[in-house]
Write a structure and sequence with these properties.
two-stranded antiparallel ribbon, alpha/beta, 8% strand, 391 residues, globular, 14 helices, 5-stranded parallel sheet
């Protein structure tokens, strides 16, 4: 069986072999599709302020973000020598709040620290009391500084660094607040930050992030939705792609004998629901067990020991289906939109017209009824004053 890993890994430590597999990613079709959509939205933003990327937990959103970040940094390399204070892309993870309110002060602090990448010669003088530097030029933020001051400092930093996009991973944590009427306020903070600094913001999260969708007409007009989908069990094309992902992963497991996990693809699908991120994590911990046991290969028993419980999968599937339903357009919704906007006609007029023409063509052609009786000459005026030569 094909092995895609360097064979010399077999002579290295368990940690080295595990690190190799942990860092390996598969450029599978769903990832490529979401990657292309996200890159296109970044390169051609027009007047877009926010990009929302939704997907199931464990579908691979963080992998996608890191992949896009590498692309944007590569594209900016030629200009970084000239503009060394510029940061092509920034990515942070929104922490889960300990209380029932999102901690904006912690968020602003984390963002400021992330934006401090360039060399000391290109550090920003924020001019805000409570933000200072030590003798090495490292940023220090006083505990007593208030959130509005940090917000002003972040605005200044984004204006100086000019990233093409500011990614917020696990952005569904922004929605974890005390009351629903503050949702608009949460998103307005991000929107105004994007607008004032002219910095595109990308919010990546689970379907919990959908509560922010279409909170206002203005926001809907200036935002883009991208759905990072899982592989569906009732789609043959998706199943083939999912099997291919399993085969690629098993080929890169640094084991003496490559495992045959494709033979158990349906079990793999059952416990991952078609999410490649969950699959990768599962394979990683199972591989760790196999390496610790000094096993020659990875077996079904290793997988079963580390699989998610059925109850966990059922809960995940319920949340996934609810999210997928909200992101799926149907004819009923579109008909309602057309009716309410004054387009009270069928969705596909050309098809309706063609259907009417086709039905008309199939109708029998009515026969024109004869006038008069058979054998009886039709009445007409005889010529007058003309000599009859037959006589």
């Amino acid at each position: 069986m094909f092995s895609g890993f360097p064979r010399e890994l077999l002579q290295q430590s368990v940690a080295a072999r595990l690190d190799y597999f942990r860092s390996y990613t598969v450029a599978h079709p769903k990832l490529k599709e979401a990657n292309e959509a996200l890159i296109r939205a970044i390169r051609e933003p027009a007047d877009t302020l926010l990009i929302f990327l939704y997907g199931p937990s464990g579908v691979g959103k963080t992998t996608l973000r890191l992949r896009v970040e590498k692309t944007l940094i590569k594209e900016a390399l030629s200009n970084l020598e000239i503009d060394r204070g510029h940061i092509p892309v920034v990515g942070i993870e929104a922490g889960s709040p300990e209380s029932r309110s999102f901690n904006w002060k912690e968020y602003y602090t984390q963002a400021l620290v992330t934006l401090e990448e360039p060399l000391i010669d290109h550090k920003i003088d924020y001019g805000v009391r409570g933000i200072m530097r030590n003798s090495e030029g490292q940023l220090r933020i006083h505990d007593r500084i208030v959130a509005p001051a940090l917000r002003r400092a972040l605005e200044q930093a984004l204006s100086h660094r000019r990233p093409r996009i500011f990614f917020i991973d696990e952005a569904q944590h922004l929605a974890k607040i005390a009351s629903g009427n503050k949702l608009q306020y949460q998103l307005d903070c991000i929107k105004s930050l994007a607008s004032m600094t002219k910095t595109l913001h990308g919010l990546l999260g689970t379907y919990e992030l959908l509560v922010f969708r279409n909170l206002s007409a203005q926001l809907s007009r200036r935002s883009v939705d991208i759905h990072f989908q899982r592989y569906l069990g009732n789609c043959q094309e998706d199943i083939r792609a999912f099997k291919s992902v399993i085969f690629t992963f098993q080929s890169h497991m640094p084991l003496e004998e490559p495992p045959d996990l494709v033979a158990h693809w349906d079990y793999c699908y059952e416990r991952t629901l078609g999410c490649v991120g969950i699959l990768k994590h599962w394979f990683t911990v199972a591989l760790r067990d196999a390496l610790d046991e000094q096993a020659t290969t990875l077996t079904l028993k290793h997988l079963e020991r580390r699989a998610l419980l059925v109850a966990q999968c059922q809960k995940m599937l319920q949340e996934i289906k609810e999210g997928e339903k909200l992101l799926t357009e149907n004819d009923a919704d579109r008909n309602q939109l057309r009716t309410e906007s004054g387009l009270d006609r069928e969705l596909n007029p050309s098809k309706s017209v063609q259907s009417a023409i086709s039905n008309k063509a199939q109708e029998p052609i009515p026969k024109t009824p004869r006038k008069g009786s058979v054998g009886k000459r039709k009445p007409k005026r005889d010529p007058i004053g003309v000599e009859n030569h037959d006589k």
